[in-house]
Amino acid sequence: SQQGEEDPQALSIQEGENATMNCSYKTSINNLQWYRQNSGRGLVHLILIRSNEREKHSGRLRVTLDTSKKSSSLLITASRAADTASYFCATDAVDSGGSNYKLTFGKGTLLTVNP
Amino acid sequence: DTEVTQTPKHLVMGMTNKKSLKCEQHMGHRAMYWYKQKAKKPPELMFVYSYEKLSINESVPSRFSPECPNSSLLNLHLHALQPEDSALYLCASSQDYLGLYGYTFGSGTRLTVV
Predict the structure, then answer these.
(1) CB-CB under 8 Å, B98 with A33
(2) Which of A102, A109, A110 is the mutation pick for testing B, counting most B CBs within 10 A?
């Protein structure tokens, strides 16, 4: 079963606007990661936030993590047409057997940035 | 070298064929992964290799057979696939099975089973 659920499923904005995507998950995690995927291509790792961190920045990206609410958000500031892609959150957590770590993806948000 | 290289990029195979997907990394990563992604869906984990040993098999049908010949290579052998197995197959690697520094993904193999 999927660990993460992104919200919204699709988001359309104008260039220059900010885009916010949210992710909720169900179990305790080791860390949470955000990935970008351009249509039909490989995944690009954007940012990783550990379970003991609350906020992290990387360029135009800002990620927050609230472990008490089991949720995270990704903010992309001053968006560009090139940011158009699907964005996935992924949680790294011990599996149900308790001995292996697994990276499990949410359903993703399709972001469209209109020029 | 900071990449995961997957070959081929595209593959069309019949249901009676045997083919293999190949994944290679030279970052010294000791964990490697196979994911399957259907259109408009998130990637789903298939297999995890840690220090060249299979550590996770997500109940994948035996028509998919992974192999890790050495720490840099990961193969996925395909035999008697079904049309519903058509998907993007992604390979990934991480420094170790803990994934503490994130994962590096390849660009995938687009598989079509006819």
Answers:
(1) no
(2) A102
